[in-house]
């Protein structure tokens, strides 16, 4: 299984910044030690043209040249990272990683990963909540551009389901695809959690504070049933957020390690049963102990490699 990383572009953060940047490197180290089935590759840089499939050109330019700091200082504050060349490079690579994962999954591997990404709070013309570019949105549109015509006897556009199980609503993704019937946005998230002004996804499931494993799985089953009834995807992009974990600082839910792994298994299995290529990204995770966030993510990879093996064993 291919997994694309971008953590070596070190983003300079002020002392005491609350974003746990170290988790990405910790994840890569543990995957290297424990999961030799995963081939880790440097993420390519998303080009302006790729980014422009989901973002306004003026926004891309302002981020790229830093003029956003002057033109929209409030927008920069909402992103939550100080602007730097490294921030731009890393954001491009993180979007490029999901693009590369989608290409690998669609190109016959069935499953591939972005070891960062899931930056679902970025809208077409604005970042927010540690998100600069919306990697899932960019990758969905790239897949449609590259595979749309090859799919189906009637040259229908490739339909993409974004299954967003990060604890925060995928408001940016919802906004970008608001009037696009070819991408289905599903978001299961904490009702009382950020963002406080929510957008409308194709399917939103609002979970109460303290939601545990059983209630979560029930909600997920119902959501996947609905998705199935309303939409026929040819590709799944999965945001496997680690922040519904009970030990998360920001999550407000109470999922256990086992509950989260059952969640991942359900999504991978759902896609596998339908032979749908799936690309996944890590999205959020803010463990009180950051090692626990990384453990949730390792568990996701452990399930993912099982399903990647099934794809490999499938006759071409
Ligand atoms: Zn989150």
UniProtKB/TrEMBL annotation:
Species assigned in the record: Rhodoferax ferrireducens
Domain of life: Bacteria
InterPro entries named in the record: HDAC_classIV, HDACs, His_deacetylse_dom, His_deacetylse_dom_sf, Ureohydrolase_dom_sf
Name listed for the protein in its UniProt record: Acetoin utilization deacetylase AcuC-like enzyme
Keyword line: Hydrolase
Lipid metabolism found in the keyword field: no
Histone deacetylase domain ranges (all copies): 22-290
Any Pfam family the entry gives: Hist_deacetyl
Gene3D superfamilies: Histone deacetylase domain
Family under the similarity heading: Belongs to the histone deacetylase family.
């Amino acid at each position: 299984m291919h997994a694309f990383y971008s953590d070596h572009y070190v983003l300079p953060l002020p002392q005491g910044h609350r974003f746990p940047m170290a988790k990405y490197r910790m994840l890569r180290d543990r995957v290297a030690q424990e999961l030799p089935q995963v081939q880790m590759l440097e993420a390519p840089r998303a080009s302006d043209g790729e980014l422009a499939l989901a973002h306004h050109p003026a926004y891309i330019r302002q981020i790229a040249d830093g003029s956003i700091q002057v033109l929209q200082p409030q927008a920069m504050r909402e992103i939550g990272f100080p602007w730097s060349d490294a921030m731009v490079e890393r954001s491009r690579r993180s979007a490029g990683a999901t693009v590369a994962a989608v290409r690998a999954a669609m190109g016959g591997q069935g499953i591939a990963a972005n070891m960062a990404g899931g930056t679902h709070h970025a809208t077409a013309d604005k970042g927010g909540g540690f998100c600069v570019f919306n990697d899932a949105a960019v990758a969905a549109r790239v897949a449609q551009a590259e595979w749309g015509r090859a799919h189906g006897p009637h040259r229908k556009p490739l339909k993409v389901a974004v299954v967003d199980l990060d604890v925060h609503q995928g408001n940016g993704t919802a906004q970008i695809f608001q009037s696009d019937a070819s991408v289905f946005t599903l978001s299961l998230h904490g009702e009382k959690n950020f963002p406080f002004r929510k957008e409308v996804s194709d399917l939103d499931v609002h979970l109460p504070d303290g939601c545990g494993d059983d209630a979560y799985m029930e909600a997920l089953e119902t959501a996947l049933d609905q998705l199935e009834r309303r939409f026929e995807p040819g590709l799944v992009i999965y945001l496997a957020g680690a922040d519904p974990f009970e030990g998360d600082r920001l999550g407000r839910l109470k999922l256990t390690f086992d509950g989260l792994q059952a969640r991942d298994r359900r999504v991978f299995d759902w896609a596998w049963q339908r032979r749908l290529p799936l690309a996944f990204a890590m999205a959020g995770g803010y463990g009180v102990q950051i090692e626990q966030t990384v453990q949730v993510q390792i568990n996701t990879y452990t399930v993912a490699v099982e399903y990647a093996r099934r794809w490999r064993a499938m006759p071409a």
